[in-house]
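Hi,

Apologies if this is the wrong queue. I'm a grad student, and the batch job for DNA 5'-3' helicase from Allomyces macrogynus produced an output file that my downstream script rejects. I'm not sure whether the problem is my script or the file. Here is the sequence I used:
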Amino acid sequence: MITHANVVIYSYHYLLDPKVAELVSRELGKGSIVVFDEAHNIDNVCIESMSVDITRPILEASSRSIVSLTEHLDRLALTNSVTQTAGSNDAEKLRNEYERLVEGLRALADARETNEVLGNPALPDDVLQEAVPGNIRKAEHFIAFLRRFVEYLKTRLRTQQVVAATPAAFLMHLREMTFIEWKPLQFCAERLSSLVCTLEITNIDEFAALNKVAMFATLVATYPQER
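Support response: The file is valid. Your script probably expects a header line. Output copied below for reference.
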């Protein structure tokens, strides 16, 4: 409908929040005129849309979601070994996903339905053209990657002091402690959404906390002040 409308009135977030702008406003024409009402609120909206609250309960729920993903993969492997016909279909889904990840996120997005399973931050076009890093292409490797990242965040929250750090400083400390590089973090949100879609998981609410962690990873790696 947005491509046929002469006037569109909607919330700031549909244009400024990278987690929803790609879904709602991507068909907005380049020649469109944008008028902001109460424009002095834009800074606050941008800060809010680029902020992610990570708490201990969220990290604990994320750990449970990681266990659930592992169980889904284990059941898939069991199906493959017991029933060759049914297993070949499931294995083919993972192979097709892997090939799309090699081609890049743009190809992955084109292959999926327009309705997103999980909301993701918008990635710049140059990132969308890249292949997903090899260490998170396979599902089991990506799950192990998420587990390491969640455990790191848990250690950061155990401190009794308030610590302020720039995204660049956070990424540097993360690399020193876990050897996790910033590049695969960029793809975390989309990679998780792809995996949930490929495994045909219907209980999406179960993964809300883990999706928030993946979203944080993508944001901090994609929009650092310096690298």
